[in-house]
Each structure stands twice: as structure tokens, then as C-alpha cells.
């Protein structure tokens, strides 16, 4: 009888998961680099990093957690063990691992996440991305971020292949130079003229002066984190009118019909 009641019940279908996403009608692409420009950028970076000696060192630490019983027996017998003599204390090895110069490391943004945060906070003056990133859309968001902040950026082939070994890393998918980086000032000044301008359909191309460097917007005062930036128009550096975004007008909001809403529980008096 129980089996008949179970068979008679209608099986509830699982709701299809729905995820709302906002897609852009524009397609972002990195401007191509010439072979001469690519070799110049890679050689300049390799020479500079090898000159300053910036490298990450990793030392494998062998812990004796699994051999506690053996070490306890040997300590009781007062017999020196070769395993115990070979193992160095953890504090001595941890001091050797890490970056060779922490101050130089703070002047760079290594990795896609660090470069994204640096661009959002307007802390970078140059961004280089490797073309070996898979999938490709992982670095597409850096194009409008660099364009809106007037930061020169380009995609350099074989960037990770040439810099990962020199810096002691597995890969270098993105590299950013901070504005307050006195050790890399000459490197940035040499690379920026070789960087092609980015093409974003809804933004104008940035103005380039006679020296070949990008004109950056000046912001008065230090910007606090999470505070909006206000660009003031000056006679020498006008704000382009075509870059002003229009306000979004919402005509109608349609609720999601497939969303299952839980009934409100009545409070017991």
C-alpha cells in the first residue's frame, strides 16, 4: 500500500539554476606588438631584473612530525641519529626563503589579481600582460581598466617564459609597475614609447605629447580607498566630453518567474 502512495505522488522537478549576467556589446582586443618592440621590452625587463637581483627563493622544509616516536626512542637511548643531524631548524630555513628585496617587490604588481587591484586604486603607470593566458577572457577586463585610468598597457608574447625563471616564479601572467617606483623609473620610461595605444570603442584615444608619453590626469590630494575620483578640467588638460557616461534609465523591472520564493512564516502570538 505504501508503494502505491509513493508511485501516485507527483515527482517534483528540480528548478533550473538561473544566473543573471550583464554582457557588453563591445569586444576588447589587445593592440598587436611588432617583433622589434617585443624583443626590446623583454630584453629591457630581463636586464633590469637580473641587475637588481630580484628573485623569490623557496627552500623545502622537512618536518619531523611523522618520526616523533623514533626521535623519542633515540633521545631516551642518547644515541645521535643521522636523520636528526641532517634536519635543520625551521627558523633558520624560513629566514632564507622569500623575496631577496622586499622593498623592490612592493614596487611591482605581479599576477592578474594584483594588477587588477592596482588599476582599480590607480596605483600603476604601466601594465604588461602575457599572451599565454588561457582562457583569454581572464585579462580582457584589464583593457578598459587601463584605458579609463590612462595607463599604457599591452600584451607581450612570451612574457612569462622569459621572466618566470629570472624571478624564481612558476609563471608571470601580468606585470604592473607602480607610480611610486624609483627603481624602475628608467625602465618604464624606455618601455612606454613602445607600447601601442588601446582601442576601446566607447572611449577616445588618450592624448600623446611630443615625447611619446601618455598624458595622465592629475588628481588633487591623496585619494582615500573606496572614494570616487573627481577629474577637474584645466586649460592644459581638458576632460574629453565624449568619455562622459550617460545615466542609465530603468524603464521596467521584471521579477524572475523561475525563482522559488519561500512563504513567510507567521509569528505565533
Characterise this structure.
This protein has 269 residues and is of the alpha+beta class. The protein has helices at residues 2-8, 35-52, 68-77, 82-86, 90-94, 102-105, 112-120, 142-148, 159-167, 185-191, and strands spanning 56-57, 98-99, 108-110, 124-130, 153-156, 174-178. Helix 8 links the parallel strand 4 and strand 5 (153-156). Helix 2 (35-52) runs parallel beside helix 9. The radius of gyration is 28 Å and the shape is flat. The two termini are 40 Å apart.
Shape: flat
Q: How does the major sheet shape up?
A: 4 strands, mixed
**What value does the Rg take, in angstroms?**
28 Å
| Secondary-structure content class | alpha+beta
- First-to-last CA distance: 40 Å
Q: Let me know the average pLDDT.
A: 75
Chart the SSEs and their pairings.
Layout: H1 2-8, H2 35-52, E1 56-57, H3 68-77, H4 82-86, H5 90-94, E2 98-99, H6 102-105, E3 108-110, H7 112-120, E4 124-130, H8 142-148, E5 153-156, H9 159-167, E6 174-178, H10 185-191
Parallel strand pairs: 4-5
Antiparallel strand pairs: 1-2, 3-6, 4-6
Helix pairs in contact: 2-9
Amino acid at each position: 500500500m505504501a508503494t502505491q502512495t509513493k508511485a501516485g505522488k507527483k515527482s517534483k522537478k528540480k528548478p533550473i539554476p538561473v544566473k543573471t549576467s550583464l554582457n557588453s556589446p563591445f569586444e576588447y582586443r589587445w593592440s598587436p606588438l611588432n617583433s622589434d618592440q617585443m624583443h626590446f621590452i623583454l630584453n629591457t625587463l630581463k636586464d633590469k631584473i637580473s641587475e637588481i637581483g630580484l628573485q623569490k627563493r623557496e627552500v623545502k622544509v622537512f618536518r619531523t612530525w611523522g618520526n616523533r616516536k623514533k626521535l623519542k626512542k633515540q633521545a631516551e637511548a642518547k644515541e645521535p641519529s643521522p636523520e636528526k643531524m641532517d634536519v635543520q631548524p625551521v627558523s633558520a630555513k624560513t629566514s632564507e626563503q622569500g623575496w631577496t628585496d622586499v622593498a623592490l617587490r612592493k614596487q611591482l604588481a605581479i599576477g592578474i589579481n594584483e594588477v587588477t587591484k592596482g588599476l582599480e586604486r590607480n596605483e600603476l603607470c604601466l601594465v604588461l600582460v602575457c599572451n599565454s593566458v588561457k582562457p583569454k577572457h581572464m585579462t580582457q577586463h584589464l583593457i578598459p581598466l587601463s584605458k579609463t585610468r590612462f595607463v599604457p598597457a599591452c600584451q607581450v608574447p612570451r612574457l612569462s617564459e622569459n621572466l618566470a625563471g629570472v624571478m624564481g616564479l612558476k609563471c608571470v601572467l601580468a606585470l604592473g609597475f607602480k607610480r611610486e617606483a624609483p627603481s624602475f623609473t628608467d625602465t618604464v620610461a624606455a618601455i612606454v614609447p613602445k607600447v601601442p595605444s588601446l582601442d576601446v570603442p566607447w572611449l577616445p584615444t588618450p592624448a600623446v605629447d611630443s615625447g611619446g608619453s601618455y598624458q595622465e590626469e592629475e588628481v588633487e590630494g591623496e585619494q582615500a580607498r573606496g572614494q570616487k575620483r573627481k577629474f577637474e578640467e584645466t586649460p592644459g588638460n581638458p576632460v574629453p566630453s565624449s568619455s562622459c557616461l550617460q545615466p542609465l534609465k530603468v524603464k521596467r523591472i521584471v521579477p524572475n518567474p523561475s525563482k522559488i520564493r519561500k512563504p513567510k512564516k507567521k509569528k505565533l502570538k
